[in-house]
């Protein structure tokens, strides 16, 4: 019997529905349950063919446990090694190389010393930074957010440079991104499962949290949806995420990828709505079963993205895999179950003084 487990924290609706749906399907020799860990010994399997990870980003013990499970043959969704390495600034740099529009973004060192560092730890960092070049590049208004954070935690809207000095001082040891604001005409939040199943949801991030999927706009044009879908697939295949969301802000007809490092995305029925919830439960269940059937003990069963694979092979990054769309169902601005296949493929303090100075 192959077991599919789900590892989760405070969420309730998705994990229960996911387990129930797999078991309802009655696949021969496949069952699903909540993961249970009563001991963690090096190189010893947990007994699961597949584990869907919804919580290790917040619990380091779980992240280490999943790496151990992976090395014994468990197919972990998402790859815990890549998830540990990835962050939003790299995501943006990858998108630039792939030709996918993203907001102009810079990386800012932490305002305060990280623990166990001194001034001498920052000998290679200029002080002050070239703030004029940064401001000219990003512009105002802008957004500042953690380079590796999730959700809306520690996200600031920045009106001007004085506003930046004030809010930057509140970030302490966080490493932040400063990002161009995209004033958008439309907005999409897109599930991507297995690098091939896409659900495009029109979304309004300016609404209260529980109303963000009630956008009130007419369905988007098919040409725009096709482009968004293509970007979603390309990003997730290059990153190697099995379960992720990508958000796009559309300005003057151009979809800008705003955030695509969400490997444990919101899937609660009370926020995403019943239709979207049903889709993600059904698609995640089918994909987990697919992975369980393909899983082989004592082998690597993780998904590795095209970025890692092309780098390991010494191939050019821009040699993107060709993607053929076999079937797309479009309804009310939503792309459901896109079935795809790949063709062969000097100082520690970095806050500026009250008045920024040119270098």
How would you describe this protein?
This protein has about 350 residues and is an alpha+beta fold. The chain is built from 10 helices and 14 strands. Strands 2-1-3-4 form a 4-stranded parallel β-sheet, sandwiched between helices. It has a 4-stranded antiparallel β-sheet with strand order 5-8-6-7, with helices on both faces. A 4-stranded antiparallel β-sheet has the order 10-9-11-12. Helix 1 (about 15-25) crosses helix 9. The longest helix has 21 residues, at about 275-295. The relative contact order is 0.17.
Low-confidence stretches: 323-359
Using DSSP, what is the number of strands?
Answer: 14
The pLDDT mean sits at 89
Secondary-structure element pattern, one letter each: EHEEHEHHEHEEHEEEHEEHHHEE
Q: Ends: how far apart?
A: 66 Å
Q: Name the CATH class of the largest domain.
A: Alpha Beta
Number of domains: 3
**DSSP strand (E) fraction?**
15-25%
From the 3D coordinates, which CATH architecture of the largest domain would you assign? Answer: 2-Layer Sandwich
Q: Please tell me what the overall shape is.
A: globular
CATH topology of the largest domain, by name, is D-amino Acid Aminotransferase, Chain A, domain 1
Structural class: alpha+beta
* Largest beta-sheet details: 4 strands, parallel
Proportion in helices? 25-40%
Tally of helical runs: 10
The gyration radius over C-alpha positions equals 22 Å
């Amino acid at each position: 019997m192959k077991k599919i487990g789900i590892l989760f924290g405070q969420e309730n609706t998705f994990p229960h529905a996911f387990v129930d749906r797999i078991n309802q399907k009655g696949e021969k020799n496949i069952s699903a349950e909540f993961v249970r860990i009563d001991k963690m010994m090096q190189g010893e399997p947990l007994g699961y063919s597949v584990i869907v990870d919804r919580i290790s980003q917040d619990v380091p013990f779980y992240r280490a446990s999943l790496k151990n499970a992976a090395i014994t043959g468990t197919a972990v969704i998402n790859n815990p090694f890549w998830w540990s390495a990835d962050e939003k600034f790299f995501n943006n740099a990858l998108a630039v190389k792939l030709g996918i529009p993203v907001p102009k973004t810079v990386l800012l060192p932490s305002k305060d010393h990280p623990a166990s560092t001194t001034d001498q730890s920052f000998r290679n960092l200029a002080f002050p930074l070239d703030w004029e070049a940064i401001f000219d590049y990003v512009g105002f208004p802008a957004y500042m957010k953690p380079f590796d954070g999730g959700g809306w935690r520690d996200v600031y809207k920045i009106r001007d440079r004085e506003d930046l000095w004030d809010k930057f001082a509140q970030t302490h040891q966080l490493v932040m991104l400063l990002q161009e604001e995209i004033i958008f005409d439309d907005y999409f939040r897109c599930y991507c499962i297995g690098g091939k199943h896409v659900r495009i949801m029109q979304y309004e991030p300016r609404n209260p949290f529980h109303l963000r999927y009630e956008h009130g706009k007419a369905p988007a044009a098919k040409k725009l949806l096709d482009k968004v879908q293509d970007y979603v697939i390309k990003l997730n295949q290059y990153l190697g995420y099995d379960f992720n969301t990508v958000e796009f802000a559309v300005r003057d007809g151009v979809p800008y990828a705003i955030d695509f490092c969400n490997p444990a995305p919101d899937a609660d029925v009370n926020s995403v709505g019943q239709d979207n919830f049903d889709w993600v439960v059904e698609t995640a269940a089918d994909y987990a079963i697919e992975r369980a059937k393909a899983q082989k003990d004592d082998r690597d069963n993780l998904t590795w993205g095209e970025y890692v694979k092309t780098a390991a092979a010494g191939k050019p990054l821009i040699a993107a895999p060709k993607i053929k769309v076999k079937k797309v169902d479009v309804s009310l601005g939503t792309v459901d179950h896109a079935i795809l296949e790949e063709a062969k493929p000097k100082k520690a303090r970095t806050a500026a003084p009250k008045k920024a100075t040119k270098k």
